[in-house]
Structure to design on (199 residues):
C-alpha cells in the first residue's frame, strides 16, 4: 500500500520579467506577457508599419538563434531556410504529470514564417491565434517560444504569449512513506493490544 501525498517541485515562473526567462532578438517583456517579432527596426524594407516591439533587432537564425535554442543548425528550416528571428525560453522543474498552458496571439503573420513552441526538443508550430497545452511534463523541462523569418526578411510576423496556467498533478505516490505509515499503524495497534492485555 502506498500513501498519497502532494509533492510539487514546480520551479516555472510565469513572470516574463524574471531572470528565469532568457531571450534573444526582439522580445518585449512585462510580468504578464511577452511580445516577439522577427521585424528589424524600421529599415525601409520590412513592413509598411514597423512591427518591431522592443527596439532590438531579431538575431540571425544561422547560428545565433539556433545556439540560443540549443538545437541543430538546420532545426529551424522547417518551412524553408531560416533567416532571422526572436525567442524566449525557460528551463524548469516540475512534478511528473504537471501541465502547462498559455495563449499565443498572432496579430501579424507572414504565411512563409515559422512561429513555434519548442518543449524538450519537440516543435509545435502555429499560424494563427491558439492555446498551447504542454501535456504531461517531465521532471526537468526546457520550453522556448519563437518566431522566425523563412526564406526572406521582407514581411514580418508577431506573437504575444499570455495567460500562463499551471495544472499540478494531484498527488504523487510514495511506497516508502506508505510502508512507514503502515508500520506505524501496526505498531500502535500492537501497543494498544498489549496495554489491554495487561489490564
Amino acid at each position: 500500500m502506498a500513501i498519497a501525498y502532494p509533492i510539487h517541485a514546480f520551479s516555472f515562473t510565469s513572470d516574463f520579467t524574471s531572470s528565469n526567462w532568457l531571450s534573444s532578438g526582439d522580445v518585449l517583456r512585462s510580468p504578464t506577457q511577452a511580445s516577439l517579432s522577427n521585424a528589424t527596426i524600421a529599415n525601409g524594407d520590412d513592413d509598411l508599419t514597423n512591427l518591431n516591439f522592443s527596439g532590438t533587432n531579431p538575431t540571425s537564425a544561422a547560428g545565433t538563434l539556433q545556439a540560443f535554442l540549443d538545437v541543430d543548425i538546420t532545426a529551424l528550416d522547417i518551412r524553408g531556410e531560416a533567416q532571422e528571428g526572436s525567442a524566449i525560453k525557460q528551463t524548469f522543474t516540475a512534478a511528473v504529470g504537471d501541465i502547462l498552458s498559455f495563449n499565443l496571439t498572432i496579430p501579424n503573420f507572414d504565411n512563409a514564417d515559422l512561429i513555434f513552441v519548442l518543449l524538450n526538443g519537440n516543435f509545435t508550430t502555429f499560424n494563427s491565434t491558439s492555446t498551447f497545452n504542454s501535456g504531461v511534463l517531465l521532471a526537468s523541462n526546457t520550453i522556448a517560444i519563437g518566431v522566425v523569418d523563412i526564406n526572406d526578411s521582407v514581411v514580418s510576423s508577431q506573437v504575444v504569449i499570455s495567460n500562463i496556467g499551471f495544472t499540478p498533478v494531484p498527488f504523487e505516490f510514495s511506497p516508502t512513506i506508505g510502508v512507514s505509515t503502515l508500520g506505524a499503524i501496526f505498531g500502535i495497534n500492537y501497543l494498544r493490544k498489549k496495554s489491554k492485555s495487561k489490564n
In short: The first helix runs from residue 64 to 69.
